[in-house]
Amino acid sequence: MIRKRVFVLNGHPAAESLTGNMAKVYADAAARAGHDVRLVNLHDLQFDPDYGFGGYVNKKPLEPALEQVMADIEWSEHVVVATPVWWGGVPAKLKGLFDRALLPGFAFDTRKTTRMGLPAPLLGGRTGRILMMSDTPGWLFRLLYRNALMVQMRGQILGFVGIKPLRISQFSGASHPKDGVVKKWSRTVARIGAAAA
């Protein structure tokens, strides 16, 4: 087994949540398997999620919490984000973290472009995993919503800055899971975490 540096972000803004439990299951399993793990909970981070200026010239000063998240991403070889699906997207505070931390010069370079004309990613060499908790069944998420959140994360957020491949595990029926389902999900997440995959 190749030992990896794994950064796990619990992207649920509440102190207690199924999403947070799954993030911890992943982190604990990865640590037991010998990986170096850093687990951060979004609800512990104090920062203004509003980018505010709407441009990259007059940058809003970074709070220490955001600087630490950026340092954790730089340190990592594998990035894991656990998130609920709210109104078809991630929670506002998690989106705010992406807006504030994934900045030019750190996450991408607007002065250089890819062959497709997009800003050059600066966080390449890292793999990723999304643990996605939703109520919408997977088949309906694909058919009705065309996997919109997955497309956004792969193409416009984490994949955009170079975190590839980005694998996504969706767990549906998260608000009221049936008996035994959470244990089954935990076993799945633990297996993935042990492999740092």
Structural write-up:
This protein has a single domain (5-194), classed as Flavodoxin domain (Rossmann fold), CATH 3.40.50.360. It is 34% helix and 24% strand. It has 6 helices and 7 strands. It has a 5-stranded parallel β-sheet, with helices on both faces. A hairpin with a 5-residue loop joins strand 4 (108-113) and strand 5 (119-121). Helix 1 (18-32) packs parallel to helix 6 (181-194). The longest helix is centred in the first third of the chain and has 15 residues, at 18-32. Residues 4-179 form the Flavodoxin-like fold domain. It comes from Shimia abyssi. This is Putative NADPH-quinone reductase.
Helices and strands in order:
Elements: E1 5-10, H1 18-32, E2 36-41, H2 64-75, E3 78-84, H3 92-101, E4 108-113, E5 119-121, E6 126-134, H4 138-143, H5 148-157, E7 163-172, H6 181-194
Parallel strand pairs: 1-2, 1-3, 3-6, 6-7
Antiparallel strand pairs: 4-5
Helix pairs in contact: 1-6
Q: Give average pLDDT, whole number.
A: 92
Helix-strand category: alpha/beta
Low-confidence blocks of residues:
none
- Remind me, CATH topology? Rossmann fold
What is the terminal separation in angstroms?
A: 12 Å
- Number of continuous helical runs: 6
CATH architecture identity: 3-Layer(aba) Sandwich
What is the radius of gyration computed over CA atoms, rounded to a whole number of angstroms?
A: 17 Å
CATH class: Alpha Beta
| Secondary-structure element order, N to C | EHEHEHEEEHHEH
How many strand segments? 7
> Major sheet: order of its strands?
2-1-3-6-7
